[in-house]
Amino acid sequence: MNGDTLYSIGELARQTGLTVKTIRFYSDTGIVTPADRSPAGYRLYGTDAVARLDLVRTLRDLGIALPTIRTVVDQEASLAEVAAAHVDALDVQIRTLRMRRAVLSLAAGRDSGPGELDALRRLAGLSAEERRRLIGGFLDTVFDGLHGHPAFTAVIRSMTPELPDDPDAEQVEAWVELAGLLQDADFRISVQGMAQDLAADRAPDDATGLPRILAKAIHCLAEPAPAKGLDPTGPEAGAVVAELAAHYAHIVGGPDDAALRRRLVTRLVGMNDPRRDRYLHLLAVVNGWPAPDSLAPVLDWTVRALRARSTV
C-alpha cells in the first residue's frame, strides 16, 4: 500500500472507540471496506476508514438510519441534504412529543380515566384544518347572528386561538385544554348568552368617554375599589355603584332604576363564569399574549355592592 498506515479491526476499534463487532458489521454491509488483507487473511483498513467511522458514529448518535448514512459516505447525497431532511423529521417528532406530553400532563392532573385520556389524545392530534373547523364552529355558535354586528369584529378576533406552527410545551398543553372548552356545549351557551347581552346593550354615542363594553366599564369604574380594600356594603362603595349604574343606564339608553340595576346584576353574574376567565387565560398562552387579569374579584365585589343597595 505504498507505506500507507493500515489498521487491523482491533486497532481501528481503539482509534474510533467502536467495538470490533460493530466495525465488522459496518464492513460486512459495505459502509466501510478493507483496504487490504494481512498474509493471514485478516482485514486491514486505511486511515480513511477512521474518518468514515467517526462520521457514521456521529450520524448514528443523531438517529439517522444506516441506509441513509451509506448514501452520505458513498457521496450519493450530501451531508447538508441529509441533515436538512432530518431536521424536518425531528421537528415533526418534537411536535408529536409535545402533544403527547400535554395529554399525559393533563391526564395526570385530572386523574383521567381511559375515556377522557382518549378524548384528550384526539384533541392533541387534530390537524391545522381540524383545529380551524373546531374554532370556527365554536365562534359561529357563540356569535350566531352577530358576525355582521359592528361591535363584534374585534371581539371575535380577540377570542380566536391561533396555535403557532412550532408551539412550545406550555402552548400545546393550553391548546388541549382550550379545545376541550370549545367542545363544551354548556360553555358555548354561556358565552353565547354573554355575546347576546353585549349586543343588546348598545346605546347612543357615549359622551362620558368611558367604553360601552360592560367588562371594560367595570375595569374603569369598579376595579380600583376592591384593590383599595373598600367594603362593598360600606358607604364609600355607594359612589362607585352610582357611577357604574349611571354609566350602564347610558349604555342601554334607559333610566337608572331598580329594573336597570336588576338587569345589571344579571349581566355581571352571567359574566362571572370561571370558565370565561380560564378560556381567556388559555387563549393568551396559545397566542403568546400577556396573561390577562381575572375579572372575577371585581365582578364579585360589584355584585355584592349592587345587592347591598337594592332589592335585586
In round numbers, the mean pLDDT is 85
Largest sheet: 3 strands, antiparallel
Lateral arrangement of strands in the main beta sheet: 1-3-2
Overall 3D shape: rod-shaped
Task: Supply the helix-strand structural class.
Answer: mainly alpha
The H/E string reads EHHEEHHHHHHHHHHHHHH
- Given as residue ranges, the uncertain stretches (5+ residues, pLDDT < 50) are none
Query: Distance between termini?
Result: 102 Å
Number of H/I helices:
16
Count of beta strands: 3
- Measured as a percent range, the helix fraction is 55-70%
Radius of gyration from the CA trace? 33 Å
Strand content: under 5%
What does this molecule look like?
There is one protein chain. The chain is mainly α and 312 residues long. The protein has 16 helices and three strands. It has a three-stranded antiparallel β-sheet. A hairpin with a 5-residue loop joins β2 (36-37) and β3. The radius of gyration is 33 Å and the shape is rod-shaped.
